[in-house]
Design goal:
single chain, 101 residues
């Protein structure tokens, strides 16, 4: 994004945004306290159990991408907490556009 000088040191400035993610359903933009999901969803395989109890650790399944028609095909390539999730990237892009206004 840019650079500033702090004394004699050049510091790079980067955009960083935090997107809240629910620990119950692993959806974005809400917390588990406000979650409307009836069941706990595993962030790795999207089955109805806690991630600590997951026996399907090699079968990744992005629950957010599975809910999105435009990213459904990509849902099997990552888990719900992955920083490369296309749904998360879209949210971050949207936040960056709004921030720059």
């Amino acid at each position: 994004m840019g650079k500033v000088f702090y004394g004699c040191t050049r510091v790079d400035i980067v955009e960083r945004f935090h997107v809240q993610q629910c620990y119950k359903c692993h959806g974005f933009r809400h917390s588990s306290k406000d979650c409307t999901s009836e069941v706990q969803v595993c962030k790795l395989c999207a089955e109805n159990h806690d991630v600590k109890e997951c026996t399907n650790r090699t079968r990744l399944f992005g629950t957010n991408c599975n809910k999105s028609e435009s990213h459904k095909a990509e849902s099997r390539s990552h888990h719900s907490g992955d920083r490369n999730c296309p749904v998360l990237k879209n949210i971050l892009d949207e936040m960056a556009k709004n921030w720059r206004r």
